[in-house]
Amino acid sequence: MNRREFAKLMGVSAVALSGIPLGITRAAGQTKGGTLNTIIQPEPPILVTALNQQQPTLTLGGKIYESLLRYSPDLKPMPGVAQSWEVSPDGLTYTFKLFPGITFHDGKPLTSEDVAFSMTKMLPETHARARAIYSRIDKAETPDPLTVIFKMKAPFAPFLTALDCTTGPIVPKHIYDGSDFRKNPANAQAIGSGPFKLKEWVKGSHVHLVRHEGYYRKDEPYLDEVIYRIIPDAASRSLALEQGKIQLTQWNDIEFYDVARLSKLPNYEMTTKGYEYFAPHQWLELNNRVKPMDDKRFRQAIAHALDLKSMAQRVYFGMPKIATGPVSSKTRFYEKDVKRYDYSLEKAKALLDEMGLKPGADGKRVTLKYLIPPYGEVYQRAGEFIRQTLGRVGIDIQLENTDVGGWADKFSNWDYEMTGNLVYQYGDPALGVSRTYISSNIKKGILFSNTAGYSNPEVDKLFDEAASATDDAKRQELYSRVQKILVEDVPVIWMFEAAYPTFIDKRLKNVTSTGVGVHESFSSVSFG
Predict the structure, then answer these.
(1) What are the tens digits of pLDDT across the range 93-128?
(2) pLDDT tens, 386-401?
(3) pLDDT of amino acid 513
(4) Cβ neighbour number for residue 183 with a 10 Å cutoff
(5) Residue 503 and residue 268: Cα distance in Å, rounded?
(6) Does residue 6 or residue 328 have the better pLDDT?
(7) Alpha-carbon distance 485 to 476, whole Å?
(8) Is 410 helix (H, G, I), strand (E, B) or coil?
(9) Exposure pattern of 238-252 as b/e (b: 16+ CB <10 Å)?
(10) Which of 192, 201, 203, 302 is most buried, by the most CB atoms less than 10 A from its CB?
(11) What does the pLDDT read at residue 271?
(12) With contact defined as beta carbons under 8 Å apart, do 106 and 223 qualify?
């Protein structure tokens, strides 16, 4: 593939893409004003998406922080704060032109300096996924306030799909430059440039967002305010939907056992759309630093011992698809021809016996702690299922509970033995997959990095080559090889390609109009 074909591959030409439509247009019957009542569950530890990438933070933060681009449901780039962009024929230079008149919530203008600072300074330090992506930038140039130019170290095919609000939120340089990012007092105010700004956050009750009057997109946002209600109890969340007190639910707001019943409510539509960009991948995370999980035979034994088919039905009521490896079948470069771990207690026991882990008089071979992710009752039930099924082969699991902040702190600082994890794929393994397995991303204190501590030089090499390759066939070959190695090593136990129900009041327009769904800015959401 030559450089011109490479440019075509990424869906852009070597000249500026001028006059691009915003992609989200006002639907017939949309009206101005109104309050959207919805749910956030669990309560996020912080609202600054550059510092925390847990799902509740991203859902709320997407209304507060914006990025260079947005993405259609089929993951084609659309203007974000960048109104146009161009890529050089050799794939090494990306030039973005910003919309004029963009302001942060404190009234200061957003310029190319803020974009360059966010993507080359702050995000590589605080954001696990962004570090792996934006470290490929050699330098950023800002010839004028509305132009930012990124010079890449080498071609990186998926760069234009790595600039969404969850990956590349733009933060104000005038607030963060020269500060301790994580201790900056402005974190409590969450100052972004999005269509909504923080009015108040009453812990344990609600987060109240109001219209950013200085928003640069004409007539947007349509809504006056968005109120995220904090409702820890699953039954109360379902009741709030049934009584019409909320107009939107997302992710695991509604427990899976209630989906079929609530789908019959006449005033709501239920969809699983809006998660295309994420392709959420769920697995059992194992701390590879802790014995006996440092031995792949033990990890393989767990893979054989987990009855995923029963778990999908009994815990998730048939909504997810069983995963076969690190890459989702819903995204690019999936390899189906990998080693399969069929449910077999006998195979699991044989591997444990081979390791010398013989059962004691009480039938237990080893005791490990499982840190339950605090994201709703389904995670508690999943933990109980894992405890029961692994107990059949003598692996004794002790369940530990914590809150969102505590889970994030313990997990990111490697203070765990087992836990559940759910990570987004972002349409390309170079964006959402490699970060979990490359040794350069073993970073203590950073969530959704290589928290398992897995290290394999061959895996590092293959991921790096695949990210830089410009030919899809070559990329597939490299990604197929790395998937086979990982499935043999099983650093984590891949369980499900997750699916989530989104309940939407039928009066609402444009809720899931982009590939990031409910994480989107909601600037075009309105009541009909």
Answers:
(1) 999 999 999 999 999 999 999 999 999 999 999 998
(2) 999 999 999 999 999 9
(3) 87
(4) 7
(5) 6
(6) 328
(7) 14
(8) helix
(9) bebbeeeebbbbbbb
(10) 192
(11) 94
(12) no
Each as own residue / partner, the long-range contacts of residues 5-10 (CB below 8 Å, 24 or more positions apart, any chain) are: 5/470, 6/89, 6/90, 6/91, 6/155, 6/157, 6/470, 7/87, 7/88, 7/89, 7/91, 9/157, 9/470, 9/472, 10/87, 10/91, 10/157, 10/159, 10/160
Q: Which of 121, 127, 116 is nearest to 68 (CA)?
A: 116
Other CB atoms closer than 10 Å to residue 79's CB: what's the count? 22
- Kindly report, residue by residue over 43-59, the tens digit of the pLDDT: 999 999 999 999 999 99
Backbone angles phi, psi at 65, to 5 degrees: -115, 140
Q: Are 254 and 241 in contact (CB under 8 A)?
A: yes
Angle (CA) 223-424-5 rounded to 5° is 95
For the entire predicted model, the pTM comes to: 0.80
CA angle 185, 186, 190 (to 5 degrees): 140
Question: Structure tokens of 159?
Answer: 């760069």
Give the integer Cα–Cα distance in Å for 159 and 153: 12
Asked whether the predicted pLDDT for residue 356 surpasses 90, the reply is: yes
Classify residue 453 by its DSSP letter. -
* CB atoms inside a 10 Å sphere around CB 344: 16
| Tokens standing for residue 286 | 């194992």
